[in-house]
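SAMPLE LOG
Freezer: B-3
Tube label: C17
Construct: single chain, 156 aa
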Amino acid sequence: MNRVTLIGHLGRDPELRRLENGTAVAKFSVATNETYKDKAGETQTLTEWHEVVIWRGQAEYAEKVLRKGSGVFIDGKLTHRKFTDANGVDKYFTEVVANTFRALEKRDSGRTEASFPTQEPQRGARIAESTPVYGGSGNGHQIEPPITSADDDLPF
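STRUCTURE (predicted):
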């Protein structure tokens, strides 16, 4: 199974363009952080950057709601592309093609809250009622009810 789930922050605003046939495609980068303790006991943070591609109506919606620095939940698949540039050099790209995404809200503390697409509420998660999950099999929005909790144990 080829499935990728990311929770991170946008590194740049989505760049929307249209193919010759009118199909919309948006691209943006997402930073994810992993925190660990090194041998000396010091906390270290490792940031990974991921290129994300979203197609059609999702691309148009992403351009409207996602901004650099905002939190985002992405669910999709990993893809690899190769092309040859004008100098004859092969270029390789690894991207996440998003099937669904959700803009994550920020609390007053400035920390991002996350919700995961499960049946049970996640500890520490809160979603605004107006925040849609976009994607899935159709071309419409799926709205999930808000999830609230006083605890916050998310790493970002």
